[in-house]
């Protein structure tokens, strides 16, 4: 079978798919339906000086991002407290969210365990991550009562925009059935942290007006650092085996949390990784802007513009997520995850996460994993014919990745 060249020295074999391979997609020869991965090679011993030099940008990025995260905390030094909660009977969904079955999540591999519901342990908690109402982090944890292992691997699951942790229950149950401790949270201004169906959008507008919060991605990343503090202290969790994944907004949360906090040992962002500056430079920002358009419309008015343009987009990102389209963007933050196992899963036709915008981040990630001597720990899957949608195969690929590196 012929091999198709991709970025740098990596090669990828074609995968059988419904669509013909004559439709070529981006990334210098990366075709729809291809996996970007590394060839199977013997691990090499990297000189210490080269490893330390390669690690410097990652250390600097973590330090800089942590500084930004701390800059808008009312009091970043609050004690981490745990409060018991109760199951949520009427979850809050926002915007125009259409509820129904999630075939993708329900396709997650699940062990057939007799009396599964009776053996399932559900924990509802609240963690204090900072002062103020949004500093109360709702957490849902599912695990099996009977386990031969004292310490088990854990995975944090993060929901998409306008949904909540309860939406993720099919995934949590599937992973719990396979011996994981499955964890989900409500991101900022979602779920139990929302008071109406417009809370998230109102928070974005407020952040633009006042510049005192970062509801788009970064505030939840702060919560995930505090969640890491809690999970690594639990006696039933192996602190070296904590994974993180999420869909769309949750994929962005997973990506940035792993970039700043290396306790997240295995990382799978789903339809979330994108190049924010690339989108601005190539006039491909519209789909992402449309997902939270209200804040950009407010900025347009405040800036005296006739329409939303690149200047408006840049100013909004700088205000509500400083550095998102510059020093913390994908070309810098994705390689910072190395050498931990990282699987990026996107749709080849996703307008919010254009595949062409990942060319530089992927090239740099390949170099980072290559320098660390573990190319096999990085992979990008671009699913053909798929836009901004999590599919059953994406869920299955994520499951396989976690099983490979956490079990």
UniProtKB/TrEMBL annotation:
Keyword field contains Chloroplast: no
Classification via InterPro entries: AB_hydrolase_fold, Peptidase_S9_cat
GO biological process, one term: proteolysis
N-terminal signal peptide: 1-18
One Pfam family linked to the record: Peptidase_S9
Source organism, top-level taxon: Eukaryota
Coiled coil region boundaries: none
Keywords, alphabetical: Signal
TM stretches of this protein: none
A GO molecular function held by the record: serine-type peptidase activity
Span of domain Peptidase S9 prolyl oligopeptidase catalytic: 175-393
Protein name per UniProt: Esterase YitV
Species in which this protein is naturally found: Dioscorea cayennensis subsp. rotundata (White Guinea yam)
């Amino acid at each position: 079978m012929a091999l198709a060249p991709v970025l740098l020295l990596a090669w990828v074999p074609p995968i059988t798919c419904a669509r013909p391979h004559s439709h070529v997609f981006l990334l210098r020869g990366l075709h729809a339906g291809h996996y970007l991965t590394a060839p199977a090679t013997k691990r090499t011993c990297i000189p210490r000086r080269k490893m330390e030099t390669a690690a410097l940008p990652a250390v600097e990025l973590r330090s800089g991002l942590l500084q930004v995260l701390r800059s808008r905390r009312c009091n970043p030094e609050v004690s981490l407290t745990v409060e018991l909660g109760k199951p949520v009977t009427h979850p809050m969904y926002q915007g125009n969210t259409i509820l129904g079955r999630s075939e993708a999540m329900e396709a997650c591999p699940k062990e057939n365990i007799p009396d599964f519901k009776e053996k399932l342990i559900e924990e509802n908690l609240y963690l204090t991550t900072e002062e103020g109402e949004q500093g109360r982090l709702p957490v849902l944890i599912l695990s099996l009562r009977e386990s031969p292992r004292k310490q088990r691997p854990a995975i944090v699951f993060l929901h998409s925009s306008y949904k909540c942790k309860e939406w993720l229950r099919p995934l949590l149950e599937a992973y719990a059935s396979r011996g994981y401790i499955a964890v989900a949270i409500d991101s900022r201004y979602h779920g139990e942290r929302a008071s109406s169906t417009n809370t998230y959008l109102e928070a974005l507008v407020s952040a633009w007006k006042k510049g005192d919060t970062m509801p788009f991605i970064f505030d939840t990343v702060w919560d995930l650092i505090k969640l890491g503090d809690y999970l690594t202290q639990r006696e039933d969790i192996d602190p070296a085996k904590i994974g993180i994944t999420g869909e769309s907004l949750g994929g962005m949360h997973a990506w940035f949390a792993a970039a700043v906090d290396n306790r997240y040992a295995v990382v799978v962002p789903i339809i979330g990784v994108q190049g924010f500056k690339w989108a601005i430079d190539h006039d491909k920002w519209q789909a992402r802007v449309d997902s939270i358009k209200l804040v950009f419309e407010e900025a347009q008015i405040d800036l005296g513009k006739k329409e939303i343009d690149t200047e408006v987009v840049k100013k909004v990102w700088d205000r509500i997520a400083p550095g998102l389209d510059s020093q913390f963007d994908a070309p810098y933050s994705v390689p910072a995850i190395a050498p931990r196992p990282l699987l990026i899963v996107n749709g080849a036709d996703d307008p919010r996460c254009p595949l062409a915008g990942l060319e530089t981040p992927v090239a740099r990630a390949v170099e980072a994993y290559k320098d660390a001597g573990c190319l096999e720990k990085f992979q990008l899957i671009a699913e053909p014919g798929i836009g901004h949608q999590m599919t059953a195969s994406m869920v299955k690929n994520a499951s396989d990745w976690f099983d490979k590196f956490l079990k």
